[in-house]
Amino acid sequence: MDIPLDVALERLTQRSLDPITGNRFHTHDHPVPTHNIKQRLARHPTDDDETVQKRYQTYSVYYDELQDFYSPQGAIHVPADQDAYTVFEAVEAGIVNQLNKDEN
Fold this sequence. Notes:
This protein is mostly helical. The chain has a domain at 5-14 and 46-103. The chain contains four helices and two strands. The radius of gyration is 17 Å and the shape is globular. The mean pLDDT is 91.
């Protein structure tokens, strides 16, 4: 997946989880509907700017090697800076297409 750092930061640092219902929320894409829910939300401890940036830098260092390794195996390229549903559909299509190839 290709994703700019600013998009990765926004997606990861602004997400939260309702520990009672298991519903996930995001400040921009899926805001919390009520104040009561907002008060009980939990964030993953590694969803902070510093940790996300560090993990992104590590990914960037190994990006070319990952491409070289997975491309010959038919890995798909997904521009992950699109909305979440488009990214999901691209990944799903890549999986389904691979399964269809394997059946033939």
